[in-house]
Amino acid sequence: MSVSSKILTLNEVIIQKQSAFPYAKGDLSRLLSHIGLAAKIVNSKVNKAGLEISILGTADNINVQGESQQKLDVYADETFIKALQASGLVCGIASEENDEIVIFDDDLSLDSDYIVCIDPLDGSSNIDVNVSVGTIFSIFRRITPAGQKVSTEDFLQPGTKQIAAGYVIYGSSTMLVYTTGLGTTGFTYDPSIGEFCLSHYFMVTPKTGKIYSINEGNYSKFPNGVKQYLKYCQEEDKGSDRPYTSRYIGSLVADFHRNLLKGGIYIYPKTASAPKGKLRLLYECNPVAFLAEQAGGLATDGYGNRVMEIQPTSLHQRISFFTGSKNMVLKAEEFMEKYKDE
Ligand code: AHM
Ligand code: MG
User: Fold this and answer.
1) pLDDT of 9
2) Per-residue exposure over 60-89, b if at least 16 CB sit within 10 Å of its own CB, e if not
3) Gyration radius of the chain's alpha carbons
4) What is the pLDDT of residue 23?
5) Which of 13, 116, 228, 308 has the most CB atoms around it within 10 Å of its CB?
6) What is the rounded average pLDDT of the residues 71-81?
7) Which one is predicted more confidently, 99 or 4?
């Protein structure tokens, strides 16, 4: 990974990268800038969470996943929806927080090319205790012809069709990491100038790391392949990096981001109580998979299937999710295959 010595802002880099596509209209670049803008607005709210009682705690709503929504979930959802509609570049949104797709049917939006899948505030149950949270997004081209209202079908595209994806991590510093398929690039927010500045030009994740991240509290409910892989992670093996170290924040963006930089594996498997897995294909797994692959890592469902090739069948579909350093994901897959019948 090279770290830039010259200050370049998100908008400048987006424009530079756009020149790799000489016939591009610049719409995707503008769209990414609008996402950056919404991220700044949400960031300022998240940073004040401890001070503003009105934005802490639950919102008395249950979302479509049956989970109670935090006030900041609702705020982040509304902020991204407003910013994306205002851009005039998006014809619809699927959000983890909304049951149905949100269709933009003003004249400008109806003619636009892009749809966005978004988890506006992932890990938000951590917000009240000052633990990092994130926004995860994925951008596709629409399938329905321009001028028509988008339909659910536009959103049920496999991850291989993603035009861009990224996340914002509201952590000890705020970062925006994105890819358009030309590598994974990271920007750190400088609050003194209000800009995301290039900090991680070409992020390459180590082929093998020393970290495994999984909610071990669910151990008794894991498939045997996962249990055996965890045993392997914990075994002493002189001359190798094992035993690995265990790190789990419980905030996907933060866990993934750390592992991306340091090398590691993140697993959220199927469990007896979440038989399809917990994480959502459209809002969490596909965008993270695109970023992982663009940084030289892997993302599978643990059963030999590349996440980005899974054909979605419903908006809020959950899958089991293995991602991170390539050799670690491949090793975990070996265990899953070996113990697949147990
Ligand atoms: P959320 O979208 O409702 O916030 O849930 C997703 C989060 C991920 O950020 C995190 O990796 C996972 O749920 C943690 O789940 P658990 O508490 O079961 O370990
Ligand atoms: Mg989420």
Assistant:
1) 92
2) eeebeeeeebbbbbbbbbebbbebbbebbb
3) 19
4) 56
5) 116
6) 91
7) 99
In this predicted structure, the answer to whether residue 235 has a pLDDT above a threshold of 90 is: yes
DSSP 101: P
Task: Catalogue all structural domains in the chain, each as residue range(s) with its CATH number.
Answer: 7-202 (3.30.540.10), 211-338 (3.40.190.80)
Name the residue among 36, 44, 117 with its Cα closest to residue 83: 36
| Per-residue pLDDT tens digits for 36-69 | 999 999 999 888 866 665 556 666 666 666 665 6
How many Å apart are CA 167 and CA 75, to the nearest integer? 17
The residue among 301, 267, 297 whose CA lies nearest residue 281 is 301
Ligand 1, closest atom to CA 266? 11
- Nearest-CA residue for ligand 1 atom 7 is 123
Separation of CA 277 and ligand 2 centre (Å): 13
Which of 278, 284, 317 for mutating ligand 1's site (highest number of atoms within 8 Å of CB)? 278
Place of tokens 């690995």: 244
Please tell me whether residue 196 adopts helix, strand or coil conformation.
strand
